[in-house]
Write a structure and sequence with these properties.
It is a single chain. This protein is of the alpha+beta class and 373 residues long. It has three domains: 43-155 and 162-179, no CATH class; 186-257, Alpha-Beta Plaits (2-Layer Sandwich); 262-372, no CATH class. It is 23% helix and 38% strand. β12 (225-227) and β13 form a beta hairpin. The longest helix is centred in the first third of the chain and has 19 residues, at 2-20.
Length: 373
């Protein structure tokens, strides 16, 4: 009995050791999370409208004459005469209205719209968008928008100071547009499904085709998928299959994803993103910074009493130079954790790490693509 329990303990330890050495880079995702349906893309809509009800923060009619023209045209359409006199009330603003028409949208459903000022309005807070038609690239009207605009930014102004937070000349109208026309193409009329990878990669595209063919062989008796390139996978519709149910089954299949090794650097914000497959050949790195500080402390020289002299300013400049760092460290990155630990051991800030990564790439030791933003 003791031997039996000892055998079970050894088996458990061996299983734990195998789990520890399992590749950490083997990541799996659903097809719906890494690819999108070509027939299910969004369509952009645009329109021109007016926002009314502003508290004196709208367009000035002199600086934005199109706002007054649009307001007069709107009132005339409502049967109100606008002959004679000019209005100076700044409670109206001309805006561009944009929205994304989701795929398979049906008439009567609502979508969000974004409003952005065209003139010299200072804020759209508290305004209401009047009825605005939204057109697509083909010139057809697909939705009509109207409703209260929500602006997250604010502005407070006094005689000697002004405080502004966020953007006050753009906002959103949640659910403000009603779809009036559906798209001409229908999902049921398609003869095949085209999946587009969000991150193009040949290995991932081949794996998606293999997984789908394995499912189709067991369900329909033959393969139906083919990887056209690194971004598109075409799936032919079987005769006995319902296209909606087929897509629902395919999008939940699990695929092992793969991505190229990349290092993304944003020098403006100091952001560094290192992919899991980034490797660095053994290389020695030394990083040192030279700081030069210049201090101006002018001296005021007063003349002696009854000397009829003038007060003078004598410049005085102090210059101090300080050099830090300079130690040499060996970086060997067979995996991501070792690479990050090696960079942290040098003890530099993100701007220094950016310079080090650029130098390693120039030396040919960085086995990844370096993307500068």
């Amino acid at each position: 009995m003791k031997l039996f329990f000892r055998f079970l303990t050894l088996v458990a330890v061996f299983a734990m050791s195998l789990a520890d050495v399992a590749p950490a880079w083997a990541l799996t995702s659903r097809i719906k999370d890494i690819a999108s349906l070509q027939a299910g893309r969004d369509n952009q809509l645009i329109g021109y409208g007016l926002i009314v009800g502003l508290q004196g923060t709208g367009d000035g009619f002199r600086a934005s004459p199109f706002t007054e023209q649009s307001m007069r045209a709107m009132l005339q359409n409502l049967g109100i005469s606008t002959q004679g006199g000019q209005s100076n009330a700044k409670n109206t603003a001309a805006v561009m209205v944009t929205a994304n028409l989701p795929p398979f949208a049906s008439p009567g459903s609502r979508i969000d719209v974004t409003v952005s000022s065209l003139g010299d309005a200072t804020s759209l807070r508290g305004g209401t968008l009047v009825m605005t038609s939204l057109s697509g690239a083909d010139g057809q009207i697909y939705a009509v928008a109207q409703g209260a605009a929500i602006v997250t930014g604010f502005q407070a102004q006094g005689q000697a100071a002004t405080v502004t937070e966020g953007v006050t000349t753009a906002g959103r109208v949640p659910g403000g547009a009603i779809i009036e026309r559906e798209l001409p193409s229908r999902f049921k009329d398609s003869v095949n499904l085209v999946l587009q990878l969000r991150n193009p990669d040949f290995s991932t595209a081949i794996r998606i085709a293999d997984i789908v063919n394995g499912y189709a062989s067991a369900r329909f008796g033959g393969p139906v998928a083919e990887a056209k390139d690194s971004q598109e996978v075409v799936i032919q519709k079987p005769r006995a299959a319902d296209l909606t149910r087929l897509m629902a089954d395919i999008e939940n299949l699990i695929v092992e994803t793969d991505t190229p090794a990349k290092v993304v650097i944003n020098e403006r914000t100091g952001t560094i993103v290192i992919g899991s497959d980034v490797r660095v050949s053994p290389v020695a790195v030394s990083y040192g910074t030279l700081t030069v500080q210049v201090t101006e402390t002018p001296q005021i020289i007063q003349p002696e009493p009854f000397s009829q002299g003038r007060t003078a300013v004598q410049p005085q400049t102090d210059i101090a130079a300080e050099q830090t760092g300079g130690r040499v460290a060996i970086i060997d990155g067979p995996d991501l954790r070792t690479l990050v630990a090696g960079l942290n051991n040098i003890g530099v800030k993100p701007d220094g790490i950016i310079a080090i990564l650029q130098g390693i790439k120039s030396a040919g030791a960085l086995q990844a693509e370096l993307v500068l933003q």
